[in-house]
Amino acid sequence: MKQINSRLRSRKAMSLTEIIMAMALLATAFIPIVGVMGTSMKATDKDDRTIKAVNLCQEKLNQALQFPFGILEPGPNGTKTYGDGGSIQELNSSGASSKIVLRLGPDDIDGFAYKAVLTVTDRPGTFNVPMYDPFQKAQNPADPTKWGWSSEVRPYAGMFFQYTMTVTWRDKGDTKDKQYTLSSFKSRVRDTK
Amino acid sequence: MKKLNRRSGMALILALVFAVVLLQMAVAYSSMTKTTKVQTVQIDERIKLDYLAQGITELALLKFQLYPGDYYACWEAFKLGNANYLKEFTTGADEFTIANFGDSESSFNNQKIGIQLASMAIYTDNRWKTEALFIQAGAEYTDQFGRSISKDAVRIVSVERVLQK
After folding, report:
1. What is the Cα–Cα distance from A166 to A162, expressed in whole angstroms?
2. Domain limits of chain B?
3. CB B134 within 8 A of CB B152
4. Which of A5, A107, B57, B70 is deepest in the core (most CB within 10 A)?
């Protein structure tokens, strides 16, 4: 009986050691999990700021594209930058049926600082136009090859602008700015339905 | 006594099994986060492509407004079975192809984008006697994994043929 009791006691001691070891193992296993969760939270925070920057960039570019052609002009050098100074630059679409106000430069969304800069660039080029002769067309209406076609090259300048909106921001702890850019084009088209 | 011996070390084994399961979960979670991030970047880039494709439709509309008679002649020739002139005016014209566009780079992606006019056609509704100009353009780039990401933009404009005296 004595022998059995002493054996049982020794088993109990083993169980305690096992439990401590098990706890230590589990705790060790949790370390990378907690680490991954922390990294994931930081990544989510960064993504949130990126999405805000993307939305801001879209919103500002949409506003700029709504301006009638020619109000946001590229200047005599062919390129002009709006909102690049240290303060907010407010642009109004005077003359448009509904007034649009475009604010560029430093902006603040939910405590995060962003800066929106618009660059308007003239993109001159040439149109390749196949031109027909109306008299020859009238004489041979069923045969397009006999319409007196000629390939004409017609230059265009000051009629097609590139709008590039750049939003910059800096993530917490980063030393370098991040940027998101959207570009589109606007041409001197007449009002369309 | 034999039973007690057989159960020795059970807690340790169970803890090891749990630890392995937890580590696997951490690895799976980590890879899921990576995949999500890639998808987020792709969504951002599709916005970029959409703006550029829309921009090319502007240029196509400008050309149509400047040379409507020649466009209609090209369209008529196309209807008569000769597509060469319409192609020369629209999709085959150099001004409607921008290769390696790099002005809309971001901190996440600086891949060059290709922009191209895809179609420019006249749609007619005989019932309402109306005509519309259908313009379609596309933009695409190859992402860092070698996949082609593309986006099309469509613009439909109501048109009216007026004889100018």
Report:
1. 13
2. 39-160
3. no
4. B57
Task: Choose among B44, B53, B45: nearest CA to B155.
Answer: B53
CB-CB contact of B129 with B89 (8 Å)? no
Identify all chain A residues contacting B33, using CB atoms and an 8 Å cutoff.
36, 39-40, 43
- Cβ separation of B19 and A29 shorter than 8 Å? yes
Tokens representing A95 are 């003359």
Look up the pTM and report it: 0.81
Angle at A174 between CA A171 and CA A180, to 5 degrees: 50
Closest A-chain CA to B15: A22
The structure tokens 């007449």 sit at: A190
Match 């921009």 to its residue by tokens: B55
Query: Mean of the pLDDT values across residues B29-45?
Result: 67
> Length of chain A in residues, anyone?
193
Separation CA A20–CA B11 (nearest Å): 10
Of A193, A165, A159, A157, whose CA–CA distance to A69 is shortest? A159
Indicate the domain borders of chain A. 2-187
Query: Using one digit for the tens of pLDDT, what is the confidence trace for A6-54?
Result: 555 555 556 778 788 878 888 887 887 788 788 778 878 888 888 889 8
Substitution target in A3, A12, A18 with the highest count of B β-carbons within 10 Å is: A18
